[in-house]
Amino acid sequence: MSEVYAARRTRLRERCEAAGSEAALVSGDANVRYLAGGAPSGAALLVGPDQDVLLCADDPYADASAGRPAEDLRVVVLPTPEGDPAVAGAERAAAAKVGSLAVEEHHLTVARHRALRSVAPGLRLADLGTAVEQQRMVKDDEEISSLRIAAEIADHALGELLESILVGRTERHLALELERRLIDHGARGPAFPTSVGSGPNSGLAGHPPSDRRVEEGDFLSVCLGADYRGYRSEVARTFVIGTSPADWQIELYEQVFAAQRAGREALAPGAAYREVDRAARLVLEGAGHGERLGPRIGHGVGLEIGEDPRLAPSAMGKLDACVPVTVDPGVHLPGRGGVRIDDTLVVRPEADGGPELLTITTKELLAL
CA–CA separation, 234 vs 42, rounded Å? Predict the structure, then answer.
């Protein structure tokens, strides 16, 4: 795999050189892992004109779950854990007589940016912007394989929960059980805090599980994901507890399901981000739920949950093949509850069968 990470760094180096910078200092955790192969939190990567150096405050080999740095990288552990790897990277760049260094300003506090300037006053600092995030959007086969396994793990955990007794259990208990099952099936941990909402809490995006107990007739919405080798899946489903669904539950579920299907069907190379959002949003606006919709219908997934691209009304850009995204519309009716349906998919051309669905838990409205 070292050659994969080396190729990623070469692409970044070429981009920096084209913009007039001789080196880049990468400090965003996910970006460092993407380029280095593995690194502890807080590490920084100096992509230099001659040699690439991973700077760490902690031993990068102490935590196997964080991955191991690529073999071709020079690894430097700072003499004290209180040291700042980004500042040390700027010092190294200055010592190497680099004239211009591109830094990730959006990952640096004002204080850290000032510290970089203070240790390398003759170094011109340029903004690298989101160059690495943009490079990360299109995934290679190995990354998609990890995402596929992460999705399978989440599906397994959710499927096992549905086979258990749910009435009388708290949202918090169900969320903890799901996260335990994720680990049992091989995940490093949950991709994000698991959300479980019952009754009037169902359908709320990111609802933190409470001590409310599941009751007969409730909507139960669950959103979870697995972290597998750093790559993160996301899936959400909504069910009815105990009895046949009420008419209003069937109607709302069918509306959200139709919107989610429209969003999935709009995924294609060359499709504008905003048009995918619009395809799903129009369905729910037509059903009278326009004011209840969130700011976006989906987002990218990978080393982070909620990475680029954003599938939102104001988003600029078009999808490429091999970009994994979620499509996750939801509607919540205050005091009653709601529905969320969320899948992780990979954008594929029509010739390859269209979007590849990674999360395959049934979307039928089940009464459990």
Answer: 25
Phi, psi (rounded to 5 degrees) for 298: -170, 180
Residue type, 54: L
Angle of helix 85-95 relative to helix 110-119, nearest 10 degrees, comes to 30
Tell me how crowded residue 314 is: count the other CB atoms within 10 A of its CB: 10
Residue type, 133: E
The per-residue pLDDT for range 70-103, each reduced to its tens digit, is: 999 999 999 987 899 999 999 999 999 999 999 9
Bond from prior residue into 81 cis (ω within 30 degrees of 0):
no
What is the separation, in whole angstroms, between the first and last Cα of the chain?
A: 45
Q: Cα–Cα distance between 297 and 328 in angstroms, integer? A: 6
User: Residues 199, 175: contact at Cβ < 8 Å?
Assistant: no
Q: Give the contacts of 64 (CB within 8 A, at least 6 positions apart).
A: none
Q: Report yes or no: 104 and 43 within 8 Å, Cβ to Cβ.
A: no
On whether the CB atoms of residues 132 and 31 are closer than 8 A, the answer is: yes
pLDDT in tens, 220-252: 999 999 999 999 999 999 999 988 899 999 999
- DSSP codes joined into one string, 150-213: HHHHHHHHHHHHHTS--TT-BHHHHHHHHHHHHHHTT-SEESS--EEEEGGGTT-TTPPP-SPB
Q: Which region holds residue 361: left if phi is over 0, alpha if psi is between -120 and 50, else beta?
A: beta
22-49 pLDDT, tens digit per residue, is 999 999 999 999 999 989 999 999 998 8
Query: The whole model's pTM is what?
Result: 0.94
Other Cβ atoms closer than 10 A to 150: 30
Name the DSSP class of 287.
Answer: T
Q: Where are the beta strands (DSSP E) in the chain?
A: 23-26, 44-47, 52-56, 74-77, 100-103, 124-127, 189-190, 195-198, 219-224, 226-228, 231-232, 235-240, 298-301, 305-311, 324-327, 330-333, 337-340, 343-346, 356-357
Residue 322's region, left for phi above 0, alpha for psi from -120 to 50, else beta, is left
